[in-house]
Design a protein that fits this description.
Chain A: It comes from Ruminiclostridium papyrosolvens C7. The complex is a heterodimer of chains A (307) and B (331). Chain A is mostly helical. Chain A has a domain of 173 residues: MetI-like fold (Orthogonal Bundle). Chain A has 13 helices and no strands. Classes of the chains: A mainly alpha (307), B mainly alpha (331).
């Protein structure tokens, strides 16, 4: 187990390093320099600015400097928002994204599991078909479509939910949270359904029933515990999906989170911010995948035997 | 000796010619069903998949014919007809610049479909070659190639896609403007070119893994040994014997990559990184529509519905195709 964790940790660190290096060098392939958009500058002023930001040094030195700064949590200053540290932007905006992300993930986990179990237990009935129909749509319809359509219906036409959200009230979580969780929710439902159907047909469930246990005990104590395992593995991809979704959802609902900031810094070509946020998001994703992999080994010891 | 004893046991009547009756039992009653015929029959029996296929064909036809029969062109600005609601004249209405939305949506569907199909084929070719080489040669070659796949797999794709888009925009732009670029690149525009580039760079790993797995199993088969003995080169074994034998899976994965590519393109266009005006894709149309969502919600409904229907029908068709071509993979 310890060997596995160490191995997995090394791979994660390697991936993170590759991502960091890729980000750094890609950003340096951008022709021109970050100050080109400024007012007319003399060569002297440009040289001063370059010296201030260390851009006059050789690329290798810049790389090491940036790596050192990033390890200290310093991503440099934003090019667009003069005088603001990217670090501060992240610290200020990320809590919004985190709150919305946790809400959406919890929604997806809970509702997805319930719907999945329900449709497995009611296989081939109208309930199952209805759930499968909704879920098939949930997987196909992009999150920005879900977000904008639900915004038109509940925000513009019915006017019962806010269309602009700063996440200060519970009602302002509903539309963005729903839009963000629709895809993972649908995915979990499908995963849960097929895994429950798998488990229900196994021998130990027959034994449990033969012992005369009630349906409730068989389902919740015996079947669900094994059936839920695949959902654990989906936790990593779910974080990726919620994160990606947050780019569009936050922009649509004008939530002042890191996702919408990322999108504006992309369109504004704010290289330092794009770079900083990319590394930050990448680190979160890689960390989550690592945690999920390790946790999965703990909850399902059978994997160790197989490998 | 054994053999002599054995021949003594054999009796003559075992060697009589078969009667007509006996021959009839061994006769093949029906024409043998080929793999493709069998798959086609299974696919046709699947109502959902057939329905999805019909929808896909209708959408492709609409995307080809729609802009041709429409009296307006997609970039034509009709002054005095801005922000019109759907009517007989403009069945999907017009946008804030007075461009006909029906034509633009059809052009957008054309772009989205083209991106999906071209990207899926490109991804597949790269993935097939990579996976085949890795699986066929095995050993340390396989080891190194698969570690690379692992890393590409664990790197957060969408972040790299965005990053590459941001970075590639300027160089591609200056390359196009330099006049050396082929004409087709010019008409595609920077957004589309970089979408294709990033997909070619990052999205082939699934295909590579699947093909590798198949090849690993197939290369142990006798016919590969026979080909080797006959002196066939590695290349001809891979391309003539191995790859054709995993064609079913390849088709399925390629089909399922189409909606993924369309999804990615619309996502990128939606956050402003894909197709730029006056060109239109379904994602960029949705993004433009979002600005006027309070006053003109109809502008969003058509492109949004089109994306959803396209992705949904490709997903359903792909699932059906998987069940038909590879029944073992059936969930």
């Amino acid at each position: 187990m310890a060997k596995y964790i160490i191995k997995r940790l090394l791979v994660s660190l390697l991936t993170l390093w590759i991502m960091f290096t890729l980000t750094f060098f890609l950003m340096h392939f951008v022709p021109g320099n970050p100050f080109i958009g400024e007012k007319k500058m003399t060569a002297e002023m440009l040289a001063n600015l370059n010296a201030k930001y260390g851009l006059d040094k050789p690329l290798g030195v810049q790389y090491l400097n940036y790596a050192k700064n990033v390890l200290h949590g310093d991503f440099g200053q934003s090019i667009q928002l003069i005088g603001q540290d990217v670090k501060d932007i992240i610290a200020q905006k990320f809590p919004y994204s985190l709150r919305l992300g946790i809400f959406a993930s919890a929604l997806a986990m809970v509702i997805g599991t319930v719907l999945g179990v329900l449709s497995a237990l009611k296989k081939n009935t109208a309930v199952d078909r209805l759930i499968m129909l909704i879920v098939t749509f949930g997987i196909a319809v992009p999150s920005f479509v879900v977000a904008t359509l639900s915004m038109i219906i509940f925000g513009v036409q019915l006017q019962i939910l806010p269309t602009i959200s700063d996440l200060s009230t519970i009602s302002s979580y509903i539309l963005p949270g729903f839009a963000l969780s629709f895809f993972p929710l649908s995915f979990i439902t499908r995963l849960m359904r097929s895994s429950m159907l798998d488990v229900i047909n196994q021998d130990y469930i027959r034994t449990a029933r033969a012992k005369g246990l009630s349906d409730k005990v068989v389902i919740f104590k015996h079947a669900l515990r094994n059936g839920i395992l695949p959902v654990v593995t989906y936790a990593g991809p779910m974080v990726a999906s919620v994160l990606t979704g947050s780019f569009v959802i936050e922009s649509i609902f004008s939530i002042p989170g890191l996702g919408s900031t990322f999108v504006t810094s992309i369109t504004g070509r704010d290289y330092t911010t794009v770079m900083g946020v990319t590394i930050f998001f990448g680190a979160i994703l890689i960390l989550m995948n690592f945690i999920v992999d390790v946790v999965y080994r703990f909850v399902d010891p059978r994997i160790n035997i197989i490998n | 000796m054994n053999t002599i004893n054995d021949t003594k046991v054999l009796e003559k009547n075992l060697f009589l010619p078969a009667t007509d009756e006996e021959k009839a039992t061994a006769e093949i009653m029906r024409p043998s069903v080929s793999y493709w015929r069998d798959a086609w029959n299974r696919l046709r029996a699947n109502k959902v998949a057939t329905g999805a296929l019909v929808v896909i064909i209708l959408i492709i036809l609409a995307a080809i014919i729609g802009p041709i029969i429409s009296p307006y062109s997609y970039e034509q600005i009709i002054e005095g007809q801005e922000n019109l609601k759907p009517s007989m004249q403009h069945i999907f209405g017009t946008d804030s610049l007075g461009r006909d939305l029906f034509t633009r949506t059809m052009i957008g569907a054309r772009i989205s479909l083209a991106v999906g199909v071209v990207a899926a084929i490109m991804i597949s070719i790269i993935g097939i070659i990579y996976g085949a080489i890795s699986g066929f040669f095995g050993g340390w070659v396989d080891n190194i190639m698969m570690r690379i796949v692992d890393i590409v797999y664990s790197v957060p794709t969408i972040l790299i896609v965005i990053l590459l888009q941001v970075v590639l925009k300027k160089p591609i732009d200056s390359y196009i403007k330099s006049g050396h670029a082929p004409a087709f690149l010019n008409s595609m525009g920077v957004g589309l070119i970089s979408i294709f580039l990033v997909m070619a760079l990052l999205y082939w790993v699934d295909m590579a893994r699947i093909v590798r797995g198949q090849i690993l199993a197939l290369k142990e088969q006798e016919y590969v040994l026979a080909a080797k003995v006959l002196g066939a080169s590695n290349r001809s074994i891979i391309f003539k014997h191995l790859i054709p034998n995993c064609i079913g899976q390849i088709i399925v994965v390629t089909t399922l990559k189409i909606p993924e590519a369309i999804f990615t393109e619309s996502f990128l266009s939606f956050i402003g990184l894909g197709v730029s005006s006056p060109m239109a894709s379904l994602g960029s149309l949705s993004q433009t529509a979002l600005k006027g969502i309070y006053s003109f919600p109809y502008m969003l409904i058509f492109p949004a519905a089109a994306i959803s229907v396209i992705i949904l029908s490709f997903n359903l068709f792909g699932d059906g195709l998987r069940d038909a071509l590879d029944p073992r993979m059936k969930k």
